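Students often ask why inverse folding is considered easier than folding. One informal answer: many sequences map to the same fold, so there is more than one right answer. In these notes we will look at a single instance of the problem. The structure comes first.
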């Protein structure tokens, strides 16, 4: 935040000089691009900046050349906003002869192994599938999907893959040169602790000529705004505040300095902490682990007894009760509209005592909710 305030002061001191792409903005963005590229194993020339992962997913979906009869496959663990974007893109194409459709791969939860994910998606792909939208880490259930295997599976079937990596950078290792997705988008404001409205979109060079930002601006016919037409379009989408993006090297440097082992050690420690927190909750509920430890990063969801939570309004009421009566902020939701779940997350500022306190009050709140 201190770094961002300094950038804001520099911007407001001389907005024309600071924001003018032909003056000093582009070199600033390129330096951040180099930083993010090193973090996620990507050539900086293949990285554009977006407001967030939802923005990146929309840019790809709304640019995608769906053919008549084409299909996009999503999952039931996908982020609602991005699944909505897939349906919107298909619906727009669906107004044309042949149209496009959306199919949903049903991933189980509780889940026993990555093999179940691969089997469910393999069974959903068809000869009509043109694009697979998957999460690197699912938002509702915190599952780290086997994205490398899924990308290889889809490519063997002639299907492109868009990975929603909203939660991945800073939570789990990301190496795009190894994963080889067609498209990958991630947030800077989640596990990298950057300012809001800051994320990146990776597009494989084969497809960059097809992908356009959701806001078309000067870059569409001003190639000088970037080293490639792809970067030119995304570098300038109208007047905006670039300070969240420009602050990212500071955020990454800070996170890397928290532990002697750097960011990798921080991710390992957060993983261990969320597992310990999950164990405390499972013991309080008398439940078995709903997912293997190796499928988790630093998010974990636990199912709650349906007979004690009920419908969506009851889940919302339980979440509000835990917050207002115990000052604990934790999401509670219905997965697939039927299975109540509670999700915890772990970062450097959390401690095991916090999860133990949640484990203590949760049964009491559940009993009050039933009554």
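Output (designed amino acids):
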């Amino acid at each position: 935040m201190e770094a961002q305030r300094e950038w804001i002061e520099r911007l407001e001191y001389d907005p024309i000089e600071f924001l003018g792409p032909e003056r000093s903005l582009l070199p600033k963005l390129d330096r951040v691009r180099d930083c993010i590229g090193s973090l996620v194993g990507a050539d900086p020339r293949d990285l554009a900046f977006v407001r967030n992962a939802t923005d990146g997913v929309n840019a790809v979906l709304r640019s995608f050349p769906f053919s008549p009869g084409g299909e996009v496959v999503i999952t039931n663990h996908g982020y609602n906003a991005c699944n909505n974007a897939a349906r919107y893109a298909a619906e727009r194409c669906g107004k044309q002869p042949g149209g496009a459709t959306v199919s949903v791969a049903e991933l189980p939860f509780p889940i026993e192994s990555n093999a179940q994910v691969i089997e469910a998606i393999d069974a959903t792909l068809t000869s009509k599938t043109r694009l697979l939208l998957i999460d690197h880490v699912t938002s509702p259930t915190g599952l780290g999907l086997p994205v490398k295997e899924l990308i290889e599976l889809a490519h063997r079937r002639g299907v492109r893959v868009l990975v929603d990596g909203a939660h991945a950078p800073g939570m789990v290792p990301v190496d795009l040169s190894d994963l080889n997705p067609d498209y990958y988008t991630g947030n800077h404001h989640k596990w990298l602790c950057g300012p809001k409205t800051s994320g990146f979109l990776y597009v494989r060079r084969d497809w960059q000529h097809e992908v356009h930002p959701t806001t078309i601006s000067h870059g569409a016919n001003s190639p000088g705004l970037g080293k490639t037409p792809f970067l030119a379009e995304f570098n300038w989408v109208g007047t905006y505040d670039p300070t969240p993006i420009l602050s990212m090297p500071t955020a990454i440097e800070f996170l890397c300095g928290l532990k002697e082992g750097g960011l990798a050690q921080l991710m390992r420690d957060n993983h261990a902490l969320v597992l310990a927190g999950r164990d405390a909750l499972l013991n309080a509920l008398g439940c078995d682990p709903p997912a293997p430890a190796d499928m988790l990063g630093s998010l974990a969801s636990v199912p709650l007894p349906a007979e004690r939570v009920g419908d969506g309004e009851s889940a919302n009421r339980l979440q509000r009760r835990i917050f207002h009566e115990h000052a604990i902020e934790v999401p509670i939701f219905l997965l697939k509209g039927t299975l109540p779940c509670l999700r915890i997350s772990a970062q450097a500022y959390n401690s095991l005592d916090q999860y133990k306190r949640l484990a203590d009050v949760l049964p009491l709140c559940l009993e009050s909710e039933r009554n």
